[in-house]
Design goal:
The protein is mainly beta. It has 4 domains: 127 residues, no CATH class; 144 residues, no CATH class; 149 residues, no CATH class; 57 residues, Membrane-bound Lytic Murein Transglycosylase D, Chain A. A hairpin with a 2-residue loop joins strand 15 and strand 16. The longest helix has 8 residues. The radius of gyration is 32 Å and the shape is elongated.
Length: 507
């Protein structure tokens, strides 16, 4: 089994005033910004963990120089946070997930920007453990036992891995050669993992956006978008078809380089992307465990403990449409250049036959204004959504972390001040049903209590009461269940209140 032994979530506000380097032009207006958290060091302690890292930011802005164009400012904001993590020890392996909840960039003056961000850090101690369940009884003592069928999901593979994706593309002939890339955005869609023999098959789409200055005296700014399907394999020892993968992934290191094409012109683009992958693969197993034991010729007592087991309830996916309109408060839109959307992990709660998901999708749109002093503009919006992912028979205590992504995004102009946004959000999860079971861990055999045996009649006519069954009657009189069946010529184990049974002590 695997479990989360300790978990804690904190939010941290980062703020800094950043001077524009001397080799960068003055700032006129802001266009796009991006912030990504990189965790550099994790130091576990007793009931705590210290996390050091940095927020790497990138800002695209229009310059204040006459005839100026676009420029990019990059930097990083270091942070160190101590997170209270009850139950953690210095010897634990702690994983930390990070999210940039919000990033705001403001202009103080043409040479200074204010950068503010809210980041979320989730620290977690996960561990593997064995749960022992009795499945057979051996020994010389005469005893009765009954079994209970269980369908369980036990973890077969638990590891962290990386998947490297390398692609190459060439600009179409009607695009100018690349002088320098101003902005790029890589995103994934329709990512799927499938269990195969000794490997995981990986497939999906890589969405690429470039904003670049072309070659020529005026360095014309051009935008280029493309979607590249990809597939590959991840070595996974012990994996087999039919197993259930529960994979969490996030985009790690990205590298985009300009390369000469076959004619030596700067038109080729090399893409390298690393996916950080948390691999959990589960195997379903059917067991019959011993749920109770009693002695016939001796006294048998048991010691049990309550265990939390689980079975696979459902592997589900769902999609919902999101629509809204964005109003541009300043200036007017002449032409749309690029739009990108992202969705953070949703708030989730269990409802009848499903998981209620609530959150918002963040949309950024870059456009051309047609104004000489500020030819580029950017607008952002948060679009809320509410969707129920159908999971029949789910209970509040059942487990399932939902992964959300923007599958499709389309932004169109309605007029010079308003845009129409249509998106499709996709959700996926593997849901496990919690099963609380009493597991027998110890059996003790002793001589029969002569006083207790003496109080029982050698032969009795037992009147069945509500809730009675052959098992508890046999246990009371130290009689095998099969003997009760034979004495009373029973064709089934069903009993009716008021029914009379012949019981002979000792079988």
């Amino acid at each position: 089994m695997d479990r989360v032994r300790a978990e804690a979530v904190i939010q941290s506000a980062l703020e800094d005033d950043v001077n524009v380097p001397e080799n960068k032009p003055d700032v006129s207006t802001l266009n796009l910004e991006r912030g990504e958290v990189a965790v550099d060091e994790i130091r576990p302690g007793t009931d705590c963990v210290t996390v050091k890292g940095r927020l790497c930011y990138r800002v695209l802005y229009h310059t204040a120089e006459e005839g100026g164009g676009l420029a990019v400012l990059e930097g990083k904001m270091p942070f160190e946070e101590k997170i209270n993590l009850q139950g953690a020890t210095a010897a634990d392996t702690v994983t930390v997930e990070s999210e940039t909840e919000d990033l705001t960039v403001g202009i103080i003056n043409t040479r200074k920007l204010k950068i503010q961000s809210l980041i979320t850090l989730t620290a977690r101690v996960e561990e593997l453990y064995d749960e022992e369940a009795p499945i057979a009884l051996r020994g010389e003592e005469k005893a009765e036992y009954r079994q209970m069928p269980l369908e369980l999901a036990q973890i077969a593979i638990c590891k962290n891995d990386i998947f490297r994706l390398k692609e190459e593309m060439t600009l179409p002939s009607n695009y100018p050669n690349i002088f320098q890339i101003l902005w790029s955005n890589l995103s994934l869609g329709d990512v799927e993992f499938k269990a195969m023999e000794e490997k995981l098959a990986v497939s999906g789409d890589l969405h690429v956006f470039l904003l670049y200055e072309g070659e020529g005296e005026e360095h014309p700014v051009r935008s280029f978008e493309s979607t590249l399907p990809f597939s590959g394999e991840l070595e996974c020892h012990g994996c087999r078809e039919g197993m259930t993968p529960d994979i969490r992934y996030r985009m790690g290191q990205q590298e985009l380089t300009v390369r000469p094409d076959f004619d030596g012109e700067e038109r080729g683009i090399g893409l390298e992307l690393v996916l950080d992958i948390s691999v959990r693969v589960y195997e379903e197993e059917k067991l019959e465990i011993i749920s109770d034991i009693y002695g016939v010729s001796s006294e048998i007592s048991t010691v049990s403990h309550r265990a939390g087991l689980r079975r696979l309830l459902a592997r589900v996916t769902g999609k919902t449409k999101v629509t809204d309109r964005i109003h541009v408060s300043e200036g007017s839109v002449l032409q749309l250049l690029h739009s990108e959307g992202s969705v953070l992990p949703p708030q989730q709660s269990v409802v009848e036959n499903g998981i209620l998901l609530q959150g918002s999708m963040s949309v950024k749109v870059l456009y051309i204004t047609g104004e000489d002093d500020a030819p580029y503009g950017c607008t952002q919006a948060q679009i809320p959504y509410r969707y129920t992912l159908e999971v029949p028979d789910i209970a509040p205590e059942d487990l399932g972390k939902v992964h959300a992504e923007v599958e499709q995004l389309q932004v169109t102009m309605l007029d010079g001040e308003e845009m129409d946004v249509k998106a499709v959000l996709s959700f996926s999860t593997v849901v496990f049903q919690n099963i609380s079971v009493e597991l027998i861990g110890q059996v003790t055999v002793s001589e029969l209590d002569s006083g207790r045996m003496g109080s029982l009649p050698g032969m009795a006519a037992y009147v069945v009461k509500p809730g009675d069954n052959l098992w508890n009657i046999g246990k009371k009189y130290y009689v095998p269940v099969e003997t009760l069946r034979e004495l009373n010529s029973l064709d089934s184990d069903e009993l009716t209140p008021g029914q009379k049974l012949l019981v002979v002590k000792g079988g």
